[in-house]
Amino acid sequence: MAPVLVLVLCLSSLLLLSLWKQSYRKGKLPPGPTPLPIIGNLLQLDMKDMNNSFRNFSKAYGPVFTLYFGMKPTVVLHGYEAVKEALNDLGEEFSGRSDYPLIDKANKGLGVVFSNGKTWKETRRFSLMTLRNFGMGKRSMEDRVQEEAQTLLEELRKTNASPYDPAFILKCASCNVICSILFKSRFDYADQIFLNLMEKFEENIKILNTPWIQVCNIFPILLDYFPGSHNIFLKNYNDVRHFILEKIKEHQQSLDLNNPQDFIDCFLVKMEQEEHNQQSSFTVENLVNTANDLFGAGTETTSTTLRYGLLLLMKHPEVAAKVQEEIDRVVGRHKRPSMQDRGRMPYTNAVLHEMQRIVDIVPMNLPHAVNHGIQFRNYFIPKDFDSKVILAS
């Protein structure tokens, strides 16, 4: 009887502590629905359509509100104005990255997408500078995109205008541009190694969007002691990591410090320059994770934008006709389009921007965190406890 009594007392204390903490924090944070002990607001959320749940909460509590994912408070900024204010006006304050347990378990806090602090700043600055000043191998990024676009067109012509789902081939084309930037070379669309990579990326994207992973990120202990799709994700991640690591070893053997040919070469040159800096962010492990981030983020976002762009043109044939007329007039049928043509194609340029405005490919963005306590729209978002900020469109 005594052990049962002790267990009941412990659980009761834990529940009371949870309620006290939530009540204490709630006084400082924006308003939101009342959370339950331990599970927070999970029962009030549609795990298969989180954005719709956020939309309904914003109607009740305004564009800034608080939800509890388990015992962790989360401030949600919903809608264009609130997100724009956070990212544009207060970009530095909101530039922190919140914990994402499954990703943290995979990348150990490295890379450019989910890292924080000094590592994030240095890796992001280097990546942007390298991609922006793309003189690597004497070939610009535009050259690489044009080459891949030509290959994509040849593949599409093979369909002989018969019904065809372009989703996979668009992913192949987008991924190949990333491969060209990272490794200096592209893959044939039938290459088995390439197809295996594509399969692992696609499977991991699907896994990340499942309710199970949402639950695992709320209760990280599940990642260590329970079976589930998170183990498939980690295996796929490690397989891609091993592939990238082999590519890095090849680059290390052929590296010319005075003539870097691609992103990996440039990163290795930077590593050489900082070899005596014990606190340097430029390590092989960070290179592996940064390359993986560029792979995943660049492939999925670009191919999804292209796919939805084609869908919108199919739904609005009158717009497609005007775009085609401008392309024929400015570029012609036998010349590759280039960035120089952009200034003479205002209608096509406007259509592309409108596509990107309409197509909401990352409706909840990535979880952010404030770098210090901040006053936002009459609410205080503190940093002194484990919280995150979700930016939802």
From TrEMBL:
The protein's name in its UniProt record: unspecific monooxygenase
Keyword terms: Endoplasmic reticulum, Heme, Iron, Membrane, Metal-binding, Microsome, Monooxygenase, Oxidoreductase, Signal
Signal peptide: 1-25
InterPro entries referenced in this protein's UniProt entry, alphabetically: Cyt_P450 (IPR001128), Cyt_P450_E_grp-I (IPR002401), Cyt_P450_sf (IPR036396), Cytochrome_P450_fam2 (IPR050182)
UniProt similarity note: Belongs to the cytochrome P450 family.
Enzyme Commission (EC) number: 1.14.14.1
Superkingdom per UniProt: Eukaryota
Location in the cell: Endoplasmic reticulum membrane; Microsome membrane
Record flagged with keyword Magnesium: no
Names of required cofactors: heme
Top enzyme category: oxidoreductase
Pfam families found in the cross-reference section: p450
